[in-house]
Write a sequence for this structure.
């Protein structure tokens, strides 16, 4: 009985959309740009637009992302131009973009907010550029991304925060860069990943490579090239394949803490601080109370010694008559 109620929930908006007297903007591509008409409505001036929302701006020596992008553009081919840098909001207006091709631009700088607004984008090709690093959060707006290529750049490091969490990412191409390791967090944010291309990087077979080796062993099929991934350093392990390292090979490496362990550590810190604070306070108040009582006792006049009457002799007194009687 689950699906009928689900369908009922979804039907009203669809009906509203169909019955709406206004033209729906999603229909714009077919209405707008006739095939291959540069400068047509909804088509950037420098490009040729085809039905189906493809804007072909390939190989036109463009120095920047062309102006005039609209929601009717679904595919933007910007490959083989001269776009060296992407400023913030470089693609505003193209919120319905699904496929963005930026290959071969000599791109060396991407502003962390360059991809803002591209929440529908599924495929992003940044290969054959000059990228050396990516700022944290660069890909954060791309929640629908399924295929990302950064092959053929100059990446020596890839911070987990640069990729962030990409829940749908299936395919990640990092071949032909300068990576020597992948930080553990990089793969942790990519739960749907099943193809990871890594060949052509100078892998250093050290503890830092552990998460990658574990991932490769758990995902053998989608990376047929895995067998060809070789260590470039240290010298003793040169040209050993990455997959040749069983978990045991990393036993000497310090265990990195799992998120749950980290949470325990973070919770225990403040808790133990509070507990020791409470213990100190309790101990302090007991000590002060003791000292006060002792001081009060010292101030009181000394008690009169008991009357040494004949009946008051203690039984312990060896010379007393009672002790003598006991003996
Ligand atoms: C894009 O346009 C160029 C010529 O400007 C052409 O060579 C290329 O095949 C076009 N690409 C696509 C996918 O239509
Ligand atoms: C993912 O992108 C790469 C590079 O753009 C391409 O070669 C590959 O075919 C794409 N994969 C899919 C499944 O579309």
């Amino acid at each position: 009985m689950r699906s009928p109620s689900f369908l009922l929930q979804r039907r009203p908006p669809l009906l509203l959309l169909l019955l709406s007297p206004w033209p729906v903007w999603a229909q714009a591509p077919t209405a707008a740009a006739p095939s291959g008409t540069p400068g047509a409505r909804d088509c950037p001036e420098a490009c040729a637009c085809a039905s189906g929302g493809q804007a072909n701006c390939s190989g036109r020596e463009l120095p920047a992302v062309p102006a005039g992008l609209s929601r009717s553009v679904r595919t933007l081919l910007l490959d083989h131009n001269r776009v060296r840098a992407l400023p913030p909001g470089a693609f505003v207006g193209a919120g319905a973009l699904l496929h963005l091709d930026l290959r071969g631009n000599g791109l060396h700088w991407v502003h962390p907010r360059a991809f803002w607004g591209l929440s529908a984008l599924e495929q992003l090709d940044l290969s054959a550029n000059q990228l050396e690093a990516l700022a944290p959060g660069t890909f954060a707006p791309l929640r629908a991304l399924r295929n990302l290529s950064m092959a053929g750049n100059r990446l020596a490091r890839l911070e987990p925060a640069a990729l962030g969490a990409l829940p749908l990412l299936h395919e990640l191409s990092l071949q032909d860069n300068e990576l020597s390791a992948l930080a553990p967090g990089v793969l942790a944010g990519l739960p749907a990943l099943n193809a990871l291309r890594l060949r052509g990087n100078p892998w250093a077979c050290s503890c830092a490579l552990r998460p990658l080796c574990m991932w490769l062993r758990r995902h053998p099929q989608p990376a047929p090239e895995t067998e060809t991934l070789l260590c470039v350093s240290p010298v003793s392990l040169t040209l050993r394949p990455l997959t040749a390292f069983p978990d045991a090979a990393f036993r000497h490496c310090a265990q990195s803490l799992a998120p749950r362990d980290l949470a325990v550590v973070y919770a225990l810190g403040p808790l133990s601080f509070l507990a020791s604070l409470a213990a100190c306070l309790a101990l302090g108040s007991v000590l002060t109370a003791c000292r006060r009582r002792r001081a009060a006792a010292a101030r009181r006049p000394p008690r009169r010694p008991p009357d040494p009457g004949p009946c008051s002799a203690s039984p312990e007194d060896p010379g007393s008559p009672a002790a003598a009687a006991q003996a």
